[in-house]
From TrEMBL:
SUPFAM superfamilies with a match to the protein in the record: NAD(P)-linked oxidoreductase
Designated name of the protein: Aldo/keto reductase
Keywords from the UniProt entry: Oxidoreductase
Molecular function as annotated in GO: oxidoreductase activity
Organism encoding this protein: Kineococcus radiotolerans (strain ATCC BAA-149 / DSM 14245 / SRS30216)
């Protein structure tokens, strides 16, 4: 990996360029396996963990289970200071939207579940047009000043709404969004690049893309006539019905073979080389899935390989 660690936008948070997604904890990975994944991720060089208060509302454990599992792991000696911890507010059924009272209540609940005194990066999980940005950012600013939160970020914001938020923070003297978490991958490029990338770049922010592996499609396990059985099959297999999907897989296969790595490694290595991207988010429900993700921290693609993937993904 290149010397030095990238900074998350305008924050003072430095991370290795890969984020471990916590959406599977308590859903497809039980507590014991989740702890093994977290241990292996940190031992393998990772230090950036991303979750949300709503994870995993769709599981038997319900909303908050991911934070609870991460919290029990963080409580082990020496764990908390080894990771940059991110969580989100705004989509949990009893804490929807970005009103000030919602944010104040949600952060305390997340801190309790996470068993920590601070959240390093606190995301607005989705834009809330019904609440004035001054109210939302004022509440986030309170949390930063109180030391409960070190930095804030926006997720699922359009470029224009993000720009408005940044201008509001400057005008009011509030803490400002340091990063944007929107969908972005080799098979989902247009919306981010057209709508938000310029705002992120112009303001010195960082992109921390979710669905970096397109619900598993970019792992290579979903192919024509070969649909792996998983919770994400429907989301991943839809890319097979487009001209781009198989074309991207073919390009990934060629680069992966040249380096002796897995397809997912190449997909993540491509993404972290894109302008504005600091750390793609990827999930692992078992420790066996981690090596392919962690290998992206080391893989350096040539200009020719980047160009081939660029052509395939257009």
């Amino acid at each position: 990996m290149p010397e030095g660690m990238p900074r998350i936008g305008t924050s003072d948070l430095d991370v290795h360029p890969l984020s471990l997604g916590g959406n599977v904890f308590g859903w497809t990975a039980d507590e014991a396996e989740s702890h093994r994944v977290l241990d292996a991720f940190v031992d393998g060089g990772g230090d950036f963990v991303d979750t949300a208060d709503v994870y995993s509302a769709w599981s038997a454990g319900g909303a908050g289970i991911s934070e609870t599992i991460i919290g029990s792991w963080l409580a082990k000696p020496g764990r908390r200071d080894r990771v940059v911890l991110a969580t989100k507010v705004g989509k949990k059924a009893d804490r929807t939207g970005l009103a000030a009272d919602t944010i104040r209540a949600a952060v305390d609940e997340s801190l309790q579940r996470l068993r920590t005194d601070r959240i390093d990066l606190y995301w607005a999980h989705a834009d809330d047009p019904a609440t004035p940005q001054e109210e939302t950012l004022g509440a986030f600013d309170e949390l930063v000043r109180a030391g409960k939160v070190r930095a804030i970020g926006a997720s699922n914001f359009t470029g224009p709404r993000l720009q408005q938020a940044l201008e509001t923070s400057r005008r009011e003297g509030f803490a400002s969004y340091a990063a944007l978490q929107n969908e972005y991958s080799l098979v989902e490029r247009e919306e981010y690049e057209r709508d938000a990338a310029d705002v992120v770049a112009a303001n010195g922010l960082a992109a921390v893309p979710y669905y970096a592996l397109a619900s598993g499609f970019l792992t290579g396990k979903y192919r024509p006539g070969q649909l792996a059985e998983s919770q994400r099959q429907a989301g991943a297999s839809k890319y097979l019905d487009t001209p781009r999907g198989p074309r991207v897989l073919a390009a990934l296969d060629e680069v992966a073979a040249a380096h002796g790595v897995e397809v997912a490694t190449v997909a993540l290595a491509w993404l972290r080389r894109q302008p504005t991207v600091v750390a793609p988010i990827a999930s692992a429900r078992t420790t066996g899935q981690l090596p392919a993700l962690l290998a992206a921290l080391e893989l350096e693609l040539s200009d020719e390989e980047l160009a081939a993937l660029e052509r395939a993904s257009r």
